[in-house]
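Q: For a teaching session next week I want to show students how multiple molecules come together into a single three-dimensional assembly. I've collected the sequence lines for a complex. Could you give me the predicted structure tokens for the whole thing so I can convert them for display?
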Amino acid sequence: MTLDFARQSAYFWALLPEIVLATWTMLVLVVDVFRSSDHPEESRAPVAWMSLAGLVVAGAANAYLLSMREAAPTGMIAVDSFRVFTNFILLLAAGLAICLSFGYLQRRHIDRGEFYVLVLFATVGMMLMAGSRDLILMFIALEVMSVAIYVLVGYHRQDPRSSEASLKYFLLGAFSSGFFLYGIALLFGATGSTHLPTIGTMLGDGVGTASPVALAGMALVLVGLGFKVAAVPFHVWTPDAYDGAPTPVTALMATGVKAAAFAAFIRVFAVGLGGVREDWAPVVWVLAALTMVAANLVALTQGSVKRMLAYSSIAHAGYLLVALLSANQAGAAAFLFYLLVYTVMTAGAFGIVIANSQGDHERVSLEDYAGFGWQQPLLGAAFGLFLLSLAGFPLTGGFLGKLYIIRSALESDNVPLAVVLVLASLISYFYYLRVIVVMYMRPAASANSHDQAGLAVPGRAAIAVAAVAVLALFFAASPVMRAAESSVASLFPAAPALFGMTP
Amino acid sequence: MLGLSEILFYFFGGMAVVSAVAMITRENPVASALWLIMTFFSLAAIYTLLGAYFIGIIQILVYAGAIMVLFLFVIMLLNLGNEYEPDIRGKTWLAMGAGSGLVLLGLLARMFSGETAPLGRQAGPRALANHVADVGVVNVIGLPLYRDYMVSLQATAILLLIACIGAVVLAKRKF
Amino acid sequence: MLRSYLPALIMLAISVANAIFMVVLSTVLSPGGRTKVKSAPYESGMDPLGGTRERFSVKFYMVAILFIVFDVETVFLLPWAVSLRPLGWEGFASAMIFIFILTVGLVYEWKKGALEWD
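A: Of course. Below is the structure for the complete assembly, covering every listed component.
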């Protein structure tokens, strides 16, 4: 089906996954509130299952999107296979987060249906943000995502750390949204449009290029997106917010929010502003280098595994920025591939953090993992696998993803950044491997300190899926890589020369 | 001889200035907030006099309504009414405030002194004025909002729905 | 153009005059002799403890947010009401979707008991 955005009805088809998911979420909300007023003490597991079903239906609608073509890139939302790919990543991230929250919410006495509703609404926001081709829509989608996440971070109202994390994230997030919006306003002032292809054409034609207004606009948009992907120096909120949030929410923030912000990043900078690369690339270069070095160094000093994973997720933002900087199609494909690997391994790692918690007590310090590997052999092995993949060891998807990124960096003659990436990864080995050492080499506090893993069956299934995916992305990576490459090709249909694409 | 709209303009303009000064000099934050409402109302009247009806209405609905509710709510929730904190900001802030005021004045002066070339193709105050003359003031907002930006509008509705849910989740005592 | 705003201006003048009239009337008619003891709040004959201002309950927050959400809805519906004819049925449909989504929020609040003062 060919969509012509001159007609409003085209948006119904172009937005089918988002519409399906949003409608489903409202249904979940109403069903839950009617059920809970009759049976307030009942478990909310059915709501969680219903939410998972909604994600599956949205995934089906998303696959249907592949059969659609747009007549011209004039719409507010992109209809290309890049969007389909990122939507699948986002739906996967939301699904993993919901699976991991089975049981966890009950143990922490925050089992309410609104949790799942907010996760789903945040996912709608992420999908809109990742697919939007208009800065206004991107901003509103960013807010839809962020407001839902602010509430989710503070979801555990009785836990002061959760409320503190929520407030910090909200205040800093509101500031960064302000920066982003101001940047949009300045770009609009410089080019007369909020539509990314138009902005790109105008700037590429030399209208407003290098004018201080356009440069300031780009810089402010960069700050706003840099905040959401948690790139150094816009990362200060990350450790506290990740640490204080309920762990399934942390998993969602580290995977879904970051993936959506990165997809928007690539749409704004690599595609929309690709014609004025030399204006923003040096800044992103510095951001990437800073992020990789600083995050890995600080991660070394963390005594809490949850905080260590937070810094690890900041570091990975640096690696993804390297892929984004490589001005070639291989870079963008490596970026998508790594985004997928990153999503599954990070969600899996946070899943193990949930598994190690007991009752209302989140056991996150390094000592709490002593002996975990022997008393919970399967989960321990999975955790080892995720950590090795995060570090980038061979036989895992993380290795292949990093390899692709380095290759793309070398192809675009970005040798210094590739060197920084390798060195930063070497630093990261230390803190990832330290957890594995503690898990297997140090005796547990008592013979039954890891008797009960705090994970319900769906959570275990999610970890199994993530572990299999991490392995599959090494051993059977080529179909995924081909899909990533073809999705990226759809991203730059009009002007491959602009992007420096090698034929 | 002044026309009626000039008289009204100077009346509301004077009232806006007086109540703005009163707002920043009150010691009681609640009184400050009430003076701020007065400022907003005067501004709304000025906007209406200038023909910017939509902004005038927004000024009353959003600023005098919604924003003031939040201001007063925060003041009363924090119980700021009883002890009056002296201004904790120092000379640097004074300098920064004065500096940004000067920048604003400079920008206004630049706006009024001759043509500032619009940067984009169709941007600029003149193009906007022509467009307004074409379709009418509120239509300038309404037509694009419900036509070109329809997707953003529905996303905004979802955002407001999330705000409803979030308020209940975070603030409802028995939930 | 401004003539159509004359009723608003007249109403504004009447309300301002009315407010001034009431304040003046109450000062003129009220018995004088305001002393410190007389204007202190009555607490069963004891000396008053603390100020009369109380910290507001967080319950007001819910009401405030609800008010703001529907206030903002009005702001969005206003341009639609003005441009109803040029927008046609498509605009009508998108306004109805907008209202529907917010109605879901209202149903939620209602059923959740957020509108009650518990």
